[in-house]
Design brief:
105 residues, mainly alpha
Length: 105
Amino acid sequence: MDRLKEKLTQAAGVNLRVADAIEKDVDILIAREQVILDRKNAAFKAHHMVLDERMKELDGFEDNLQILENAIPLPDTGATGLSSTLEKAVADAVTEPPASQTPGS
């Protein structure tokens, strides 16, 4: 009988010990959250930098278009035509490589 009482006493603590073990694992997972978020941010950082640079270039392109629009009145070329000045500005902006890039990169 003593042996059974001892085993029942051990069995009574199983639930508590398992709950403690689960809580420890959950705490470890929670503690890893910031590490995972930091790695995610690092993985996307370069991509965000490239997009930020493209947005700056697009802002500059839009600024140039605004300057052209305000400075040079466009001749009436019909609904589908662009003036040669605007066509040249667009062609130059599209073919000009960004200052931050070198050919072949």
